[in-house]
Amino acid sequence: MAEILKYLAKLPTPLTAVTLIVGDEGAGTLELANLLLQQITDYHLRVHTATRLPLPEDGAASRPNFDFVIFLLDITRMESFKQTEEALQYVDVAYFHGRSCLIVNGAKKPDRWANDYSIVEELANAYNLQIICCQLEDEEDGAVVRRRLTAPAI
Amino acid sequence: MESDTTLTSAETEQWLTTPLTQINDGQATATSGVLASRRSAALRRQKSRLIGTASTKIGASRRRTRTPRIQTEPETLLAAELVNKTWSIYKASPLYSFSINLLKNYSKSLTVELEAAIKKGVAVGLDSETTCKATFSVFEGFAYDQDGAQSVKLSVSAKRKQISDNEPSEVLTLLLTGRMNDASKSISGSFTCCPVMLTRGQVMFTDIVMAWMQNQFDCSIYRMSFSQYHLAWMVAMWAGILPENTSPKSVMLVYSVPETEGVDTLTLSINPHDCKRLWVSVHNADSSSFLESEVHTFHKSLELHFYQHFKIHLSCMQLSSIGTPIVFVSSEGKMKMYSVEHVDSVLQLLVDLIVEEYPDRLQESL
């Protein structure tokens, strides 16, 4: 049985937010990570990236506790949707209580969508994920995503 | 550079057996978890709705019905006009105060507009000596509902004055069609629903005509574009139809390859008979509707087959155009129909897709 990503399996680091971005190759995982790290925050922000879940066994010891999981999906490719759908099954339910979100990349080009939007919506609703639609290469969109993801919770 | 990868029918022999069984396995693994159970519940609901009522309303693009073909003489006239030509598809919001009795006035008004545009020098390549004539006409006897709304054809022809024996050449043909089951009725008073516009001809004239229409009928007209999702639906829906008389065109799926140098497109062409066999094995023949799960299985089997031979995941590519024995459609809104008998079902699908985009309130009044 593959390892499920557990919340608080380890002690969290004080004043540090550790984020995990899950998105298949080409979905823009690195772009999003760089984007997040540009933001100046009151806390330390650490970003980890993964192409798929479950995470590999080796290196598990040195891995910190993840406070937030970002699922990144490229709506223009069917493969990306499938991978996200699969990855969602290896995540602890505690993350779905406001500790995760779904970012839909490529949303500004509806003619290139591989999937009907309602299917993506259904996926997000099933896991209680908040959807953020964006076009990551778009500067304005990137700034909005960055601000929304790093804003302190109210 | 373009690389074409074509599957021959010899290779297609085995796929009906091997990949399909694998797909069943694939589905079994996929149907675990919260989402899968939710979705299958939704599908079950659709199925029961399908059996229970004969409603023609399409449930949010998840289920589609092939329209039964009722052919009458004048219809074939229109169909013959449409087939074997490449058309650009435009979508239109309902037309305000459009009347079939005023076509002559419209023709005059548009002719004036076109000539003004030519005088202004908007039209490149035409000197001011050129005369233009716009003619709206009705496809006689082709009424798609009791109110008498019909398909309308607009043809624009240009003629140069200096050369007297010059035949006026047709520069633009535009067809307003909106025949459909329920959406054709005029909406509350003065609106006419005529969602599909097909054009063929010079872009310059198309722009002028579209601008005139938007002003005249207070509507919005946009270029139709198809998402990969819709193209995938179309292939699956029409893969099972083979026109009887001629040798059918092969089923074609053109994928654009993202971010790879040297290869732009990838063409998968399949023998139509093989494709039909595959579809028959996937589709429930007793039902007149198509389910999303069937479309999904169909494409998954094609992708698996392709992966077995070429080790390429087609689902990583973007589907850019499709060809079936009855129609060719590209994602940027061009199409070419090949079969007179199936013009109806193609147009019906276009209408459905456009009407689905209308706001809910408008859809209800249709």
Could you give a short description of this structure?
The complex is a heterodimer of chains A (154) and B (366). Chain A is α/β, with parallel strands linked by helices and 154 residues long.
Structure explained in plain terms:
The complex is a heterodimer of chains A (154) and B (366). Chain A is built from four helices and five strands; from the N terminus they run βαββαβαβα. Chain A has 154 residues and is of the alpha/beta class. Chain A has a five-stranded parallel beta sheet with strand order 2-1-3-4-5, with helices on both faces. Chain B folds into two domains: 3-29 and 58-74 and 225-353, no CATH class; 94-219, no CATH class. Chain B is built from eleven helices and 16 strands. In chain B, helix 2 crosses helix 9, helix 5 (103-120) crosses helix 6 (203-217) and helix 7 packs across helix 9 (292-310). The longest helix of chain B is centred in the N-terminal third of the chain and has 19 residues, at 34-52. Chain B is globular. Residues 1-61, 141-149 and 180-184 of chain B have low confidence and may be disordered.
